[in-house]
Specification:
The structure is a single chain. The protein is α/β, with parallel strands linked by helices. The chain has two domains: 9-156, Glucose-regulated metallo-peptidase M90, N-terminal domain (Cyclin A, domain 1, Orthogonal Bundle), CATH 1.10.472.150; 179-255, Collagenase (Catalytic Domain), CATH 3.40.390. The chain contains ten helices and seven strands. The strands form two sheets. Strands 1-2-7-6-4 form a five-stranded mixed beta sheet. A two-stranded antiparallel sheet has the order 3-5. Helix 4 (68-80) links the parallel strand 1 (57-60) and strand 2. The longest helix is centred in the C-terminal third of the chain and has 23 residues, at 179-201. It is globular and about 50 Å long. It starts with a helix and ends in a 9-residue tail after the last helix. The chain binds zinc ion.
Length: 258
């Protein structure tokens, strides 16, 4: 209780400071999603960014220097995911490790519970349960500037972190409000996952990337990318999936500015 009170007090202090102009310039240059938000959401995003930057440990790898630009660009994208959620600050993510580019992993462990490693030998990112989120700066920037439509590394890795908020098991289901929401989640997403597996097996491309067939955790992470990156496409082609995600994130990105 006392720790919670201390944390609230610290957050109030952090968010009472005016948002630096320089940080706004970094967002304008590197995080295109901000331009789509309403004034209210942009205001909320900045408060979340201030807390996120203040509370995480930041570390550069392979000689990479973590500048304020790097922190703001990562924080702004991560916090878009939690704009509609009550008091979610990724508290269980203690550190952010940033590599200059995709990197070759030193370990070969890829399947232990609570560890998600992405895409083959040259890794783009990782999410560890109660551990660091590891990101490639080149890919963070490409996602923020929407140079790879439909893909966003930060959304993807932090979707895994939302998934891990209810424990080490990364099962593609973040904490939900109640049984009704969980029932709807399963009703809609289970058949969609099976359909995606079938479509990809036949070699057809669609709105949702076939990387989502890796397992249900990757399915949720890939859906999160599409929900925020291509909401119109998702709501047109998979309206029920869009509805379930909109209900979870408490956001309607298909109505945001283009
Ligand atoms: Zn993943």
């Amino acid at each position: 209780m006392f720790l919670k009170w201390l944390r609230c007090r610290r957050r109030r202090r952090v968010t009472a400071v005016p948002f630096p102009d320089e940080w706004n310039a970094f967002i304008e240059a590197n995080v295109i999603h901000d331009q789509r938000l309403s004034d209210e959401l942009r205001f909320r995003l900045r408060k979340l960014i201030q807390v996120f930057i203040a509370e995480k440990n930041w570390e550069g790898c392979n000689g990479f220097a973590v500048s304020e630009e790097v922190k703001v660009t990562i924080a702004a994208q991560a916090c878009v995911l939690v704009l509609g959620l009550q008091n979610v600050h990724f508290d269980h993510v203690l550190s952010i490790l940033v590599y200059p580019d995709s990197y070759v992993a030193k370990t070969v462990e890829t399947t232990r519970a609570g560890v998600i490693v992405e895409r083959g030998h040259a890794r783009l990112g990782e999410a560890w349960w109660r551990g660091p989120v590891i990101l490639s700066w080149a890919d963070v920037l490409a996602g923020g500037r929407r140079e790879s439509p439909g893909r966003n590394l930060v959304f993807h890795e932090f979707a895994h972190q939302l998934d891990m908020m209810n424990g080490r098991m990364v099962d593609g289901t973040p904490p939900l409000k109640n049984d009704k929401q969980l029932q709807r989640w399963v009703e809609v997403l289970e058949p969609e996952y099976k359909q995606l597996v079938e479509r990809c097996r036949q070699g057809h491309q669609g709105v949702v990337d076939c990387y989502g067939t890796t397992n249900v955790a990757e399915f949720f992470a890939v859906l999160t990318e599409v929900f925020f990156e291509c909401p119109q496409l998702l709501s047109t082609h998979h309206p029920q999936v869009y509805g379930v995600l909109s209900d979870y994130f408490q956001l309607s990105p298909h109505s945001w500015r283009n």
